[in-house]
Specification:
Elements (H helix, E strand, L loop, with lengths): L12 H10 L3 E5 L3 H10 L3 E4 L3 H4 L11 H14 L4 E5 L9 H15 L3 E3 L7 H9 L4 E6 L5 H4 L9 H17 L3 E5 L3 H10 L4 E4 L7 E4 L1 H4 L17 H17 L11
Helix pairs in contact: 2-4, 4-5, 5-6, 8-9
3-methyl-2-oxobutanoic acid (KIV) binds next to strand 6.
C-alpha cells in the first residue's frame, strides 16, 4: 500500500517544486540497495537519496570521505533498478567535485550514465557554485546541501549543530540564495537551528529538505537504517525511530541458531 499524497506517476524535480508551491511536505529517505529501495518506493516515498552515508552505513567507515565514485554508482544503480516512482538523487562523493568544475561535470555525467539516476547532490555554498553551474550545463539537476556537511568533518572537527552564531548563519542564508540563483532544484539543510532553517525556506523558492532542521521547512530526510533502528548506537535528538530492527534481527538470528543447533530446522515440511 502506498500513502503518497501526490498522484505523481513518477516524481520529478518539477514535482518536488510543485509540492513546495502547494504546501505539501516532501518525504525523502536514503537507500543504498535494491531490496530496501523497492520497499520504500512502493510505500510512496517521494525522493530516494543514495547518500554518501553509505560509507558509514554500508561499509563501516568512520566518515563519508572514503567512498569512491564507482562505489556510489554501484549503490545508485542497485537503487534505480528497484524504483518505479521516486526521484533518485545521488551524492557526489568527496573528491569528485571540489575545486574543479570539469571534474564535477565528469563525475556527474558518469553517475547519470552508469546508474540511471535522476539528479546529483553536493555539499557546500559559494565554494562549489562554479561546479553547480557547470553540471547544470549538461542538463543534470543538482540538489545543494548546507549546514552540517559531513565531507568537511576534518575542517569543523565535530558533528555538532552548525550556524548557531550570527556570522555562520548569515553565510548560510547567502549560500542558499546563491545555490538557488545558480539553478539548484532543491536544498538539504542538516543540523542547524530550526528558526534559521525556517528563515531559509521562506527566503528561497526551491524546496528545503531538513534533517535536524525543525519542522517548518518543505520536507524531511532521514537515513533509512537509522529510522528503522538498525544502527542502534546513534541517538541524535532529531532522529525518530519507527522500528527497532537491530533487536528484531538479532532476536530472529538467535532463534535461527537455536533451531539449527537443535535440529528443529528444517522440519519435514521444509524439505524435498
Ligand atoms: O549522505 C546522506 O545520507 C545525506 C543525508 C544525511 C542528507 O547526505
Amino acid at each position: 500500500m502506498s500513502v503518497a499524497k501526490s498522484d505523481f506517476k513518477k516524481v520529478t524535480t518539477n514535482s518536488v517544486q510543485e509540492m513546495k508551491q502547494n504546501g505539501e511536505k516532501i518525504s525523502m529517505l536514503t537507500a543504498y540497495d535494491f531490496t530496501l529501495a523497492k520497499i520504500i518506493d512502493s510505500a510512496g516515498i517521494d525522493v530516494i537519496l543514495v547518500g554518501d552515508s553509505a560509507s558509514n552505513v554500508m561499509a563501516g567507515h568512520e566518515t563519508t570521505l572514503p567512498i569512491t565514485l564507482d562505489q556510489m554508482i554501484y549503490h545508485a544503480s542497485s537503487v534505480v533498478r528497484a524504483v518505479e516512482r521516486a526521484l533518485v538523487v545521488v551524492d557526489l562523493p568527496f573528491g569528485s567535485y571540489q575545486g574543479n568544475s570539469k571534474t564535477a561535470l565528469n563525475s556527474s555525467i558518469k553517475i547519470m550514465k552508469e546508474s540511471g539516476a535522476h539528479a546529483v547532490k553536493l555539499e557546500g555554498g559559494v565554494e562549489v557554485l562554479t561546479s553547480v553551474r557547470r553540471i547544470l550545463t549538461a542538463g543534470i539537476p543538482v540538489m545543494g546541501h548546507l549546514g552540517l556537511t559531513p565531507q568537511s568533518i576534518y575542517k569543523f572537527g565535530t558533528y555538532t549543530v552548525r550556524a548557531k552564531e550570527e556570522e555562520e548563519a548569515e553565510k548560510l542564508i547567502s549560500d542558499a540564495k546563491k545555490l538557488e540563483e545558480a539553478g539548484c532544484f532543491a536544498l538539504v539543510l542538516e543540523k542547524i537551528p530550526a528558526k534559521l532553517a525556517t528563515k531559509v525556506a521562506k527566503a528561497i523558492s526551491i524546496p528545503v529538505i531538513g534533517i535536524g532542521a525543525g519542522g517548518d521547512v518543505d520536507g524531511q530526510v532521514l537515513v533509512l537504517h537509522d529510522m528503522l533502528g538498525m544502527t542502534h548506537e546513534f541517538h541524535p535528538r532529531f532522529l525518530r525511530r519507527y522500528l527497532n530492527l537491530y533487536e528484531d534481527i538479532n532476536g530472529a538470528v538467535q532463534n535461527y541458531i537455536t533451531d539449527v543447533k537443535s535440529s528443529d530446522f528444517p522440519n519435514e515440511k521444509e524439505q524435498y
